[in-house]
């Protein structure tokens, strides 16, 4: 059966939109699109409807009214949902994902069928739908975050999945479950939206950055505690350095072969690489990659100093030393760099805290 999945996050810090800005489409594919907007209500109308029905069910108000009264109650509940969301959003921009696909659904007898929609229970495992689109969402979060300095974070506002039958009628599958600082923003210009779209496309082409994107997404979750955010960011940075080093080691060492006696120099370099293969320290790899991605010497020195401070803090935490969680750095400077066709579109400090 056809499904539609929507989710919305407020963008905390980073990019913003003026109050009178039109929605900006960041990316569109056959089954998925991302939009940045100041007014998400129209895009989220269908999942708001499903959420309203669920809330009324919790209040035991579904089977006790005729259709007209029930729809009046649903509309009233939707207005409450929109009002609550508006308070959470404030003056922030909202990123929305709209995705469609096919999924196996088990339809029991509907709890209630109305003119505009059907209500049923547990027809589909919504976690499966979330998993299908997780990689796309994480890549877009990273693409948006790298547009600002410091990188933004994301606070979940709404998330929902509904089904669509062959007649085009919406089916709300109700499932009951429980889940348990200051920022600055700058207006997103047309060029910025184009950079985000291009960055997202490159990240999606990379087959080896899923773990980096996932860890960054965890760090960027505004609801995460600072320790989890810091450790997720550090893990993302460490993985990114290791993967980047494999790509840039030869580029970094190649000047050693540019003088005379090239065959002998290449033999000597090959021996160094063979001996050092498993002996490079993380700082060594950072230096090599930073020197390629950030050829400006001042930028390299600045980032290396920052990296050393972060590593010392990480090591201190892992060794059991005392630390202040509220002072953990979970935002950092963001540089963006694209070399060739590589999907490593961020500098060494872009992923880190």
Task: Report strand order across the widest sheet.
Answer: 3-4-5-1-8-9-7-6
Specify the biggest β-sheet.
Answer: 8 strands, mixed
Domain module tally? 2
Q: Looking at the structure, what is the overall shape?
A: elongated
| Cα Rg | 24 Å
Tally of helical runs: 9
N-to-C order of helices and strands: EEEEHHEEEHEEEHHHHHH
Ordered list of secondary-structure elements with their pairings:
Layout: E1 2-12, E2 14-16, E3 24-28, E4 32-37, H1 45-58, H2 67-89, E5 93-102, E6 112-113, E7 117-121, H3 126-145, E8 153-164, E9 170-174, E10 185-187, H4 190-205, H5 210-220, H6 226-253, H7 262-276, H8 282-293, H9 297-318
Parallel strand pairs: 2-10, 7-9
Antiparallel strand pairs: 1-5, 1-8, 3-4, 4-5, 6-7, 8-9
Helix pairs in contact: 1-2, 3-4, 3-5, 5-6, 6-8, 8-9
Can you walk through the features of this model?
This protein has 353 residues and is of the alpha+beta class. It has two domains: 2-205, no CATH class; 210-327, no CATH class. Helix content is 46%, strand content 18%. It has nine helices and ten strands. It has helices spanning 45-58, 67-89, 126-145, 190-205, 210-220, 226-253, 262-276, 282-293, 297-318; strands at 2-12, 14-16, 24-28, 32-37, 93-102, 112-113, 117-121, 153-164, 170-174, 185-187. The strands form two sheets. Strands 3-4-5-1-8-9-7-6 form an eight-stranded mixed sheet, with helices on both faces. A two-stranded parallel ribbon has the order 2-10. Strand 8 and strand 9 (170-174) form a beta hairpin. Helix 1 (45-58) packs across helix 2 and helix 8 runs antiparallel to helix 9. The longest helix is centred in the C-terminal third of the chain and has 28 residues, at 226-253. The chain is elongated and about 90 Å long. Mean pLDDT is 79; it is low at 178-183 and 332-353.
């Amino acid at each position: 059966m056809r499904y539609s999945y929507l989710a919305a996050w407020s963008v905390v810090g980073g990019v913003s939109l003026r109050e009178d800005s039109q929605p900006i489409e960041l990316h569109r594919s056959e089954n998925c699109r991302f939009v940045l907007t100041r007014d998400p209500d129209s895009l989220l109308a269908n999942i708001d409807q499903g959420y309203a029905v669920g809330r009324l069910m919790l209040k035991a108000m579904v089977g006790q009214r005729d259709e007209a009264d029930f729809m009046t109650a649903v509309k009233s509940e939707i207005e409450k949902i929109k009002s609550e969301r508006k308070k959470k959003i404030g003056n922030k921009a909202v990123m929305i994902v709209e995705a469609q696909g096919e999924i196996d659904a088990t339809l029991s007898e509907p709890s209630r069928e109305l003119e505009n929609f059907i209500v049923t229970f547990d027809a589909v495992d919504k976690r499966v739908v979330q998993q299908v689109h997780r990689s796309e969402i994480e890549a877009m979060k990273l693409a948006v975050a790298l547009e600002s300095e410091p990188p933004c974070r994301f606070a979940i506002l709404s998330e929902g999945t509904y089904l669509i039958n062959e007649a085009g009628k919406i089916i709300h599958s109700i499932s009951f479950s429980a889940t348990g600082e200051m920022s600055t923003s700058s207006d997103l210009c047309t060029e910025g939206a184009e950079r985000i779209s291009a960055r997202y496309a490159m990240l999606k082409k990379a087959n080896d950055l899923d773990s980096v994107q996932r860890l960054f997404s965890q760090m960027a979750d505004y609801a995460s505690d600072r320790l989890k955010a810091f450790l997720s960011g550090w893990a993302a940075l460490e993985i990114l350095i290791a993967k980047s080093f494999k790509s840039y080691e030869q580029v970094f060492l190649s000047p050693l072969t540019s003088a005379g006696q090239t065959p002998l120099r290449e033999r000597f370099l090959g021996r160094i690489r063979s001996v050092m293969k498993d002996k490079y320290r993380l700082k060594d790899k950072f230096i090599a990659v930073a020197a390629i991605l950030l050829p400006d010497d001042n930028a390299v020195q600045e980032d290396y100093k920052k990296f050393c401070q972060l590593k010392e803090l990480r090591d201190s935490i892992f060794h059991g030393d005392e630390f202040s969680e509220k002072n953990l750095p979970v935002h950092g400077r963001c540089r963006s760099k694209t070399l060739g066709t590589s999907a490593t579109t961020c500098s060494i400090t872009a992923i880190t805290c």
